[in-house]
Design brief:
single chain, 229 residues, alpha+beta, eight-stranded mixed β-sheet, 6 helices, 27% helix
């Protein structure tokens, strides 16, 4: 199949789910700026004494000004576009940010458990608890739909095809991709290329992922715990 054969679908998820490590603050500079047009000058001023903000400013400049967002609840969204992983992700090659979210909570858990386990296993990390935070955000977007097919894009061990496709689609004006979860059968995920497709986030549950030295075998939700099979 060619890129032109990928259909567009309107995706409306109210809400979508995204789980991130709790070390990332839920409130930051983006919440404090009322007008997105002021983001760049404010960040430029702050970055004079903050190397980390200087790097984030570089990534911000890759977003069209009219597609930036600010105000309460936007830091968790904008952070996905200004804290870009240099090693990339399924639909990101490290040169632009991508906001990932799932249609349901269980898929968000399984997706993040997989990635946390891989990181800890590769590092040979001893048993530990990971603090995680769930965000809910409404999503409405017209996305390239690769659900139900495109096996090269859903490979569990390679992101090469997905990164190449995403770069081409984004350059051609795409807003993002909706795809099948690779970590949970029946789950669905979105990879969004621009922050204005996402309504401000609200915080949901906090989780503890318990790593036993070889796998995450327990997840604590508030005061309740359950074991993973």
């Amino acid at each position: 199949m060619s890129d032109a054969e990928i259909t567009l679908s309107t995706v409306v998820w109210r809400p979508s789910y995204r789980i991130v490590p709790s070390r990332f603050p839920p409130v930051g500079l983006f919440d404090a700026v009322a007008d997105p047009a002021d983001l760049e000058p404010v960040m430029a001023l702050e970055s004079l004494t903050n190397d980390r903000l200087r790097e984030q400013l570089g990534h911000l400049r890759r977003l069209p000004p009219e597609r930036r967002i600010s105000g309460p609840g936007t830091t968790p969204i904008m952070s996905a576009f200004t804290h870009v992983r240099p090693d990339g992700s399924r639909f990101g090659n490290g040169r632009f940010g991508v906001y990932y979210a799932t249609r349901d909570r269980a898929t968000a858990i399984d997706e993040t458990v997989f990635h946390r386990e891989r990181f800890l296993r590769d590092a040979g990390h001893p048993p530990t608890d990971l603090q995680m935070r769930c965000y809910l955000a409404d999503v409405r977007a017209r996305l390239h739909d690769v659900r139900g097919g495109w096996p090269d894009l859903h490979r569990p061990d390679s992101y090469a095809a997905g990164q190449a496709l995403a770069e081409r689609l984004r350059a051609a004006g795409s807003d993002g991709i909706v795809y099948d979860s690779v970590r949970r059968v029946g789950g669905q995920c979105v990879a969004l290329f621009y922050p204005d497709l996402i309504a401000p986030c609200r915080q949901s549950e906090h989780y503890i992922y318990r790593w036993n030295g070889s796998r995450i075998d327990q997840i604590v939700v508030a005061s309740e715990a359950y074991s993973r099979p």
